[in-house]
From TrEMBL:
Keywords: Isomerase, Lipid biosynthesis, Lipid metabolism, Membrane, Steroid biosynthesis, Steroid metabolism, Sterol biosynthesis, Sterol metabolism, Transmembrane, Transmembrane helix. Residues 64-210 form the EXPERA domain. Residues 229-274 are annotated as: Disordered. This is EXPERA domain-containing protein. InterPro entries: EBP, EXPERA. It is a multi-pass membrane protein. The keyword Transmembrane applies. Belongs to the EBP family. The chain crosses the membrane at residues 34-55, 67-88, 120-143, 189-211. PANTHER family: 3-BETA-HYDROXYSTEROID-DELTA(8),DELTA(7)-ISOMERASE, STEROL ISOMERASE. Its main location: membrane.
Amino acid sequence: MSSYFSRMTSYHPYHPVDINLSGKYVENSFSPSILVVTFGTTWALVLGATLFAVRRFYPRLSIKDQGLVLWFILTGSIHIFFEGYFVYNHARMASRTDFFGQLWKEYALSDSRYMSSDSFLLTIETWTVILWGPLSYLTAVYITQNSQFRHTVQALVSTGELYGNLLYLGTSLLDEYTTGKRYYRPEPLYFWVYFVLMNSIWLFVPGFALYDSVMASARSFEYSDPPYAAKRTRKAKDDGGKKEKEYRKVPASQESDTRSRRGKAKSYNDDYSG
């Protein structure tokens, strides 16, 4: 307990320096490297266990679908457990000393809004925990079951993650551009690695998953919707007719050679019979 109070301080490392923190700031006891390595190792174990289960019970899944199952299990777990921690503890984040609390305080060096119960972040994170977390798990189940609802839910979750992440990044950068208020520390690590690189994962992977669902829906309409199906049938018939005409069409030189061979065969037969 004495070590806890000794780490309580009016100083904090966040930007802007006049930010109103949620609770009394307590310095982290874990180093950044320990926090990051432990966090990464935890999710690596989750992914490893998921991959083992998928290959054990659903060996016929394609490599792409296996990767998407891993993604939706990972992102769903982060939404529910890590972001859920913030939603539950947002009013006292600056004083949290457990592992997730210290991890959030480390990440907040790239976005101090997490230390101030920012209304926008609290709203969008709550929405993420309630909706996108459980639906991510549901999407993973639908992929393994080859469900007819798979691409509907996959597109919904991916669109939500894309939209939320763009709003998250955009509001921070827009505040800096319009008011000069910067929520990240000046060191390149916090902006380019924590803020840009880490969050870009939730742009590219959901973007790919959304593209996958859009293309699957397009193929479904092509084969099932009457106008598209009729168009495809007409195209197949036209292609078949062209191939048949090309097959029947014999070049003049080839036709001449055929007639010559037939003439020689007839002359040979006449001589033999005579």
